[in-house]
Amino acid sequence: MLDLTYTAPKPKVIAGAKHDWELVIGMEIHAQVSSNAKLFSGASTQVGAEPNSNVAFVDAAMPGMLPVINEFCIEQAVRSGLGLKAQINLVSAFDRKNYFYPDLPQGYQISQLYHPIVGEGEVLVELAPGVARRVRIERIHLEQDAGKSIHDMDPTMSFVDFNRTGVALMEIVSRPDIRGPEEAAAYVSKLRQILRYLGTCDGDMQHGNLRADVNVSVCKPGQYEKYQETQDFSHLGTRCEIKNMNSLRFIQAAIDYEARRQIAIIEDGGSVMQETRLYDPDKGETRSMRSKEEAHDYRYFPCPDLLPLEIEQAWVDQIAATMPELPDAKKARFMGDFGLTDYDANVLTAEVDSAAFFEAVAQGRDGKIAANWVINELFGRLNKEGRAIADSPVSAAQLGGMLDLLAKGEITGKMAKDLFEILWTEGGDPAEQAAKHGMKAVTDTGAIEKALDELIAANPDQVEKAKVNAKLAGWFTGQVLKATGGKANPAVVNAMVAQKLGL
Amino acid sequence: MSIDIDTARKVAKLARIRVEEAALPELARELSGILGFMEQLNEVNVEGVEPMTSVTPMRLKRRADVVTDGNIQAQVLKNAPDAREGFFAVPKVVE
């Protein structure tokens, strides 16, 4: 397999009044586990249900109800940990994070502060061919999601729906290794891609199934390197946390705004206050969530309702044995085995379904040609019609069959595009459809030669011109293709023109 | 460690429990008493002793990922002081 090596990108620099500033970013990603039932109850996780219908008494925090953990959710946390090359903790435990809010009926969130199920890992975040940031993962812990408040249904009341209350989340915490807005967005994309490959989270950001809290601080150049050497945070600036971002575009805009806000404060002689902020996409700015400040005293303590979570190494090994090939490995394999460019390999491995489709087409065929057809023709057409690869009217077998006809010279490139269109709209077997629509490349050089000879005899002026300027020989190729109704192979005609004209 | 009146007031507020100002000194005294007892326990040398999490050796009970509960909206909302259109209705909380 191809061994890809990367160099680290340059951090984003913002010019200040006196000197440059660098950004330091750490992220907490909340990824909803793709389970049927909630983390500690048997209620459904389905979205779009009647309000408060996917709620068990446990979720509503009725007195005396006890949580019982969903084993599938534990497995997904372990699987995600393995996917991030992380340490799996065979013993972890649950704690209560206490705060008061109407969407939190228990008055506490069950989380894992002191003993998370997954420890240190790593994500490789590619930013350009050969350029990538290694972002260290500090931990992944399992926790409950909160409910949802709706504020615009009544002028004086807020309406609360507990359907999401108690749904399992994996909180994936990074180290402050991200150095700019683009890197932050690329990190979220990469994490999302890995989780989707693993099938542990569907990554649907629009519905909030993947959302990010972003910690941003600024520092003078050189300070970050001191932090990396010592892991001592005092070398870095005071951070602010921007909560609940579920759009890659907004994440970038919020980081940029927040960094400039902090720089302005410091350059004005002030100091940044550590606080929680919210991004307002309409105004394009962040603002303080003052009400959250006092609640920050979470009074964590071990949850007395739950024993420590002990898992067996054999079970972890069993999960490890069923891991799919992950994006980095797949990309390297596609580049090595099929000779794809970095760009094409990225496009084809973005989604696991696309990668599988491409592989089925490319198997035993020319990988680059297969990649061109899948990316340019198939993806182009799917995008235009807003379809997913799973709903592609042209199957991998059909596209492969068409590429075989093309490779054998039985159809020309132009015919292949027409045939693709026919397969898309009518379906059918590529060879049969080609025959039915009279698509047959003229491979008989006699016919091509005859047409060319006639042309040369009838156009002595063009012959002279072509001999002076070889580029004009293309005229003959064009005329022969026209004369043969586009059925001749352009490469064969080109060669013959060059030979006949003695070019 | 002892709990002073300010700390007692703050803890009550965080827990959203109304405690009248006059009751705070007594509450602080009681909480301090509890913590005092804990401190007494802390004097015991437990080095090398695993924390006990259960009286009998038990493994955390697990459930399968199957929907077995829910669809009891009426019961869930039954004790709510105010519920409308399937939602709990609470005094407006806007960030």
Key words describing this protein structure:
heterodimer, A: 503 residues, alpha+beta, Arc Repressor Mutant, subunit A, 17 strands, B: 95 residues, two-stranded antiparallel ribbon, 3 strands, Asn/Gln-tRNA_Trfase_suB/E_cat (chain A), GatB (chain A)
Describe this structure in words.
Chain B: Pfam families: GatC. Chain B: One of its GO terms (biological process) is glutaminyl-tRNAGln biosynthesis via transamidation. Chain B: Heterotrimer of A, B and C subunits. Chain B: InterPro entries: Asp/Glu-ADT_sf_sub_c, GatC. The complex is a heterodimer of chains A (about 500) and B (about 100). Helix content of chain A is about 40%, strand content about 20%. By secondary structure, chain A is of the alpha+beta class. In chain A, the strands form four sheets. In chain A, strands 1, 2, 7, 8, 11, 12, 13, 14 and 15 form a nine-stranded mixed beta sheet that branches. In chain A, strands 6-5-16 form a three-stranded antiparallel beta sheet, with no helix packed on it. In chain A, strands 4-17 form a two-stranded antiparallel ribbon. Chain A is elongated and about 95 Å long. Chain B has about 100 residues and is α+β, with helices and mostly antiparallel strands. Chain B has a domain at about 5-40. In chain B, strand 2 (about 85) and strand 3 (about 85-90) form a beta hairpin. The two termini of chain B are about 35 Å apart. The model of chain B has no long low-confidence stretch (mean pLDDT about 90). Classes of the chains: A alpha+beta (about 500), B alpha+beta (about 100). At the A-B interface, strand 3, helix 1, strand 10 and strand 17 of A face strand 1, helix 3 and strand 3 of B. Strand 3 of chain A pairs parallel with strand 1 (about 60-65) of chain B.
